[in-house]
Design a protein that fits this description.
The protein has about 300 residues and is of the alpha/beta class. Helix content is about 30%, strand content about 25%. The chain has a domain at about 105-185: D-Maltodextrin-Binding Protein, domain 2, CATH 3.40.190. The protein starts with 6 loop residues before the first strand and ends in a 5-residue tail after the last helix.
Length: about 300
């Protein structure tokens, strides 16, 4: 087995922090190996003046990285799983999913301790159609302001744009060291996260058995199983950034709880519920959830 394995990632602060977590884990397992990092600019890193759903949705932050992985210029790629399309490029697989960080959304505000305490006509910042739909499900009088940028940039915009609050993925806020800004970690039954939220995935070529073997010890089986369920349902729905869709699977011992939310940008709710199954009933859970969503798909 060779001694140097190149890891590809985006160059954002959060992407580099997540890659650092992977490098640290692999270096502790394999002290005789090196894991240099190659930063790769994606389309999503070059367009900041429009919401993601208007410029292509899923895949915006991965395609250029996947191209390098397929060419062999990198050996593995680190992603936020929620950024990955439900179907990876031919020849690529998720070689490992690290133990998932908190998958919930975080409410950050200078004036309010809970999202539900925000009064009518307040301004809440988010770049996500999913979050917008679920905010308006709770409070139709809220004005949702498009908000993109790194975690620290968005927190700064909370002040500079006179926002009453912003909503970010709790995992990203924690990884970047901004936990003290969190006013509320929003319960999953109020705001259902994106499929894959909170999880770091390592993408590899399906035929690179050396890398797959290398990654085996960093894979968390429960997190990987939850992610697999979420992504299978996402694939059946054909969901991406263009659909206000929340999917979250939670496994506790032999129990599987599947949370589902789909609505419109105006706050209309089509589905917002949870169902509990036995863990081995994952296929039934996905099928039943798909059947609930299917009538509302265009």
């Amino acid at each position: 087995m060779k001694k140097i394995w190149t890891i590809g990632t985006r160059g954002s602060k959060l992407a580099l922090k997540q890659t650092e977590i992977v490098v640290r884990a692999l270096s502790s397992l394999y002290p005789g190996m090196e894991f240099p990092v190659k930063t790769i600019k994606t389309k999503g890193d070059t367009i900041w003046d429009r919401p993601l759903h208007l410029i292509g949705g899923k895949g915006l932050f991965v395609k250029e990285i996947e191209d390098e992985l397929l060419r062999g210029s990198i050996d593995m790629a680190v992603h936020s799983v929620k950024d990955l399309p439900s179907e990876l490029e031919d020849g690529l697989i998720l070689g490992a999913v690290l133990k998932r960080e908190d998958p919930r959304d975080a409410f950050i505000s200078l004036g309010y301790n809970r999202l539900e305490a925000v009064p009518p006509l307040s301004k809440i910042g988010t770049s996500s159609l999913r979050r917008k739909a679920q905010i308006l499900r709770l409070k139709k009088e809220i004005e949702v302001i498009p908000l993109r940028g790194n975690v620290d940039t968005r927190i700064r915009k909370l002040k500079t744009q006179s926002l009453d609050g912003i909503i970010l993925a709790c995992a990203g806020v924690k990884r970047m060291g901004f936990t003290e800004h969190i006013r509320e970690i929003i319960p999953v039954d109020i705001m259902v996260p994106s499929a894959g939220q909170g999880a770091i995935g390592i993408e590899v070529r399906y035929d690179n058995n050396e890398v797959i073997q290398l990654l085996s010890p960093v894979n968390d089986p429960v997190s990987a199983e939850e992610i697999s369920i979420e992504r299978e349902l996402l694939g059946k729905i054909g969901g991406g950034c263009q659909i206000p869709l929340g999917i979250h699977a939670n496994i506790k011992e032999r129990s599987l709880t599947l949370y589902l939310s789909m609505g419109g940008e105006n706050g209309r709710t089509f589905v917002h519920e949870k169902e509990t199954y036995r863990r081995e009933q994952a296929a039934d859970a996905v099928r039943e959830a798909h059947n609930k969503i299917k009538p509302f798909l265009a």
